[in-house]
UniProtKB/TrEMBL annotation:
Gene3D superfamilies: Trypsin-like serine proteases
Native species: Loxostege sticticalis
Superkingdom, natural source: Eukaryota
Chain ranges of the Peptidase S1 domain: 17-280
Protein name: Peptidase S1 domain-containing protein
PROSITE patterns: TRYPSIN_DOM (PS50240)
Length: 334
């Protein structure tokens, strides 16, 4: 009987690990450092708090890779809520955007933009009293202190897009990705699992006017080893968290959405040669509030999980009537 109990416990643990490979809704409040904002270039983007007044995201979310003319209209980040809805969270205005100095040559500019990060400076501190989840900054590994190994497990949060088996609620088209999701992935060899993606990325850069070779040393390949989840279904600016630090971002549009069936993705590191001087310059803005043990951080995501329960209140949201004067947009409803 004891041997059967041991086998059952082992099988249950194995199933729990495998289930973790699918994008899942983390415990409420487990990601106090993640925000999102509407992007005029990429629809919706993810941001990471590096202090109470600064957000790290992908440069393609705030400027165009092919144009030197910047969109001067205001940007508001949404903080304090992991449920994406126009009536949730607190909006904080962005007053200044910091990006690396780029080459004026169109092809080079487009390539450099696709592997660049950006810092959004906020008008005021992210509030605690008015939000459901008090926001805190997470450490950023921009020096490359964490030497990552093959098959090392990391995770990437974001409001991911469609996943196999996703359902659409019939009223107002509430999708499951209105809730933030977390997906565990392993670091794998680029020449084995991201070769096709690298070739397509290189071809896309050539069409943009860049005829050199992209720096493979500045990116890493991540993969779902169970071949059930699709890491490319994410949002730009989504961070890759390894050892309780942000080590990379989903930055390059042309390195995504072209190989979703390969269960792999190319993410650009924050400690690459191209970004090192920029990250060193803006590192004075980094004031992390969270110094959590890596094992404790992962456990915190899974504590008391209920994957069938979503933060969705039909009694409230099914009866909302949107009209021409509403602040919601079509992208928010989708």
């Amino acid at each position: 009987m004891g041997r059967w109990k041991f086998a059952f416990d082992s099988l249950s643990g194995w199933l729990a690990v495998c289930a973790g490979r699918e994008p899942f809704k983390p415990r409420y409040g487990a990601l106090p450092w993640i925000v999102y904002f509407p992007s005029r270039y990429r629809g919706m983007c993810v941001g990471t708090l590096v202090s109470r007044v600064a957000v790290l995201t992908a440069a393609v979310c705030v400027t165009s890779p092919t144009s030197e003319i910047h969109d001067r209209r205001p940007i508001n980040i949404i903080t304090g809520s992991t449920y994406r809805h126009p009536r949730r969270g607190v909006r904080v205005q962005v007053t200044k955007i910091l990006i690396p100095r780029l080459n004026n040559i169109t092809g080079n500019r487009g390539y450099l933009m696709e592997k660049s990060a950006a810092i959004l400076l906020l008008k005021r501190k992210v509030p605690d009293a008015m939000v459901g989840i008090p926001q805190r900054a997470i450490p950023i590994d921009w020096k490359g202190d964490e030497v990552l190994t093959l098959q090392e497990e990391c995770f990437m949060p974001g409001w991911h897009f469609f996943y196999r088996g996703d359902r659409i609620y019939p009223i107002h088209r509430f999708l499951l990705q209105r809730n933030v999701r977390v997906q565990f992935m392993n670091i794998v060899k680029k020449n084995m699992w991201c070769e096709a993606l690298s070739i397509k990325f290189q071809k896309a850069l050539a069409n943009m006017g860049f005829f050199g070779y992209f720096d493979k040393g500045g990116c890493i390949c991540v993969k779902d080893p169970d071949r059930t989840a699709q890491p490319c279904h994410g949002m730009y600016g989504a961070p890759l968290v390894c050892r309780a630090k942000v080590v990379a971002l989903m930055m390059a549009p042309d390195a995504q959405w072209t190989n979703c069936t390969g269960f792999s993705n190319l993410l650009h590191t924050l400690s690459g040669n191209w970004l090192r001087s920029f990250m060193s310059c803006v590192s004075v803005l980094f004031e992390p509030d969270i110094k959590m043990d890596w094992r404790a951080m992962k456990k915190n995501l899974w504590e008391d999980p209920d994957h069938e329960q979503y933060d969705y209140v039909p009694a409230l949201y099914d009866k909302m009537n949107f009209h021409a004067g509403s602040t919601s947009t079509e992208s928010e409803e989708n």
